[in-house]
Amino acid sequence: MAPQAPQRMPKITILDPRDGFYHAVGTPMAHTTKSYIEHPWRTWDQIAELKRPSVSILKGTAVRADPETKRLLYLSSESNGQQQQQHTLDYDFLVVGTGLRRPWPTVPVATTKSEYAMQAGRYIDRLRTCDSVVVIGGGAVGIEMAAEIKHRYPTKQVTLVHSRSALLSSEPVPTEFQYQVLQVAQLGGVNVMLKNRVLSVTEGLGNTKMIKLEDGNHLTADEVIWATSSAAPVTEFLPRKALDEKGFVNVLPSMQFAASIPNNQNHFAVGDVIATPGIRLAKTAIRMGRTAAMNIAHMIVSAERGHGLQPDLAEMRGPNKGLSLIIGGSGAAFDEKTGAIFCGPEVKNGIFGDDMALHRALGALGLPLNP
In sequence order, what DSSP letters do the residues of 136-170 get, joined into one string? Predict the structure, then answer.
């Protein structure tokens, strides 16, 4: 049940290096199809719900958070991207949703929509001139990137290289689902090389790349895309004791920091930055954000009413083990509740539609499809 609204509307500050929200699930299509480039990126001023006096948006990057003093040091950037200054921001509640750091082109590196549109457009122009593409990493990101490129450009040679004996080797999914995903990718024309670790990628003749494999063989390609599962969480600004050995934030089911952190009840983390044995999914991240928001509202209302005890808080259920993938013109899904596996174009159409599930993400956020 939704919490009662606070009597006084709290001031909300969004700190982000980008000028808007980006639907990362749409990256494979946005980086292969020019007509889709601008759809996944929604600038802050395109979101009517943020146009309120109580909402402030700061373009910048967090430098250091001090849970004990509840103070954040951040680096702001002007619109020209040249001038940067350090500032401090005092807060009552902190929600960390900074995500993972991945290399281009698996995610944008631009900080403005206009800059991103130009960068993605140039990348597609470059991709169109390539005869061969090698994608390194057989996780969800690598599978979807390789399959989408082959789907959009069927005459190109697309190779997916993975170091393990099965795709999705880092995910808690059954062997049969891994096999079905492999079959769908291969039927779509992707050349999949398993048990092949990439040792190095160097420049070859002309614009070609030389890929050296652990077994001593070499591949050549016009374009190489790194999509390994070693993406790091953006958490350098948090105290080390708040993180696990890989840099992910340890959280309670309420999405609050672990009890060992000062003022942990006022600190929340959501999305890809949290430590979890489950699969990191956009829909789960949205539910985490909703859980954190509800709990903050509960705590504010409780404080307004003078309750000395912390209210009962909403909690996330156990780690997610279901997974759905877009594999070019097809799709694959594993239902963790029933154990059922589904594959085929109808899976893609039913789950993701024709916009890489952008309509689903916006709907879950309560945002219209068209700004």
Answer: E--SHHHHHHHHHHHHH-TTSEEEEE-SSSSTTTT
